[in-house]
Design goal:
The structure is a single chain. The chain is built from 13 helices and 17 strands. By secondary structure, the protein is of the alpha/beta class. It starts with a helix and ends in a 9-residue tail after the last helix.
Length: about 450
Amino acid sequence: MINNLPSKLRYLSFWILDTLKGRKILKELKDIQLLLGQNSFDLLKKKNEAKVKDLLNKVVHEAPYYSNFKNYKSLQDFPVTNKHIIKENFNQFQIASSRKTKLHTIFTSGSTGTPFMVYQTKQKRHRNTADTIYFAGKAGYTLGDKLLYLRLWNKNLKKNKISAFIQNVHQINIENLNPSYIESFLKRLQKDKSPKGWLAYPSGLEKICDFLDSINSKPLDCNIKSIIGMSENLSNHVRNKMSHYFDAPMVSRYSNFENGIIAQQSIDSNYFEVNWASYILEILDFKKDVPAKPGELGRIVITDLYNHATPMIRYDTGDIGAVTNVENHSFPVLETVEGRKADILFNTKGTMISPFKFMGILPQYPEIEQIQFIQTKKTGYAIKINVREEFLQETELVALFKSIVGDDAAVAVEYVNEIPLLSSKKRKITRNLYSEQLLQNALDSSFITKPTF
């Protein structure tokens, strides 16, 4: 009971401070609970109609980019945008009235390495905080508990000691995850009996699980209440290992810096519950701005109902997924989130392949430390492998890979000491250099979708 006191004090302090400031976060949280507690999708959409209309009316009158859309009939009359379009026309996107208030700047390089900045109003910030509280709670985390936050912590992201203490955030830099650090950290974790939750890159958690495997560890008593993976695809291997070692369910969260939490897995399921309270989500065809067929993969396009500074209307996130309906759930869910299109491999016939098929290869070769599957040409591929000892199953691995991409594939195998990380310190299991080059050629030619008036 004593160990829970600091968490309870932080919980009470947070809501007391919010009360003194006008209960702005609590109001947003109650709205999210109300909307996502509806028993029909039509009813939820009806309750959101006023928010949609307010946003669209504001942008057509106050954001120059949308000035020619005053006669719109629905959201679908607006053009699909993306990071490149917003960057090219940044000043034209800004809502004029928002400039009279204090704005928050969101800046990220993103997984593509392309710098991107948007402004957010205070209400958008409050909404994001409420979204975080709601979805963290769905995963088992209680506001005030210690948060084990494992990611890349550079100087721009790292919280100062006072802020980290107040928020009860333990910042773990993924760059520090060597065996010595992991061993020392886990010992400290077991001595600390306070309730905790993980929020982490799955690749970082995989390193911790691999260390525990290497010492034949038993499950640890760390009082972990929740485990949330973010920013990378979560394999069943990591999910099961984390649940085994830390005795808590693990879920995957789909979010980005420029918007916030878009969807999150339910406990004990693989589908993602969409944050319909704060966003409108569409799945569009890969080549045309029309809806993908029900259940089929397409581009994830969202409309952020709360950014009234830099509007994100029909914003192509660069990720792909598929929407479906499931029994005993009132709203459509994301059946899968496959990650960025630029990271997806295609077979030799041009059909997209889910990264989870490649993840399924890994458990068959435990001697492989790291692996990455790369598409270099339309029918050309490379497999990078990092192993400690001689790898004797290369022929078998290549055959298994060809069974996925096509028997006519040209496959090169390269042995490396380390799979390169992205600048964000994330590691991708798949990389499509062929798509990256096609995209760069298009950008160099200024072939960027613009709205037609």
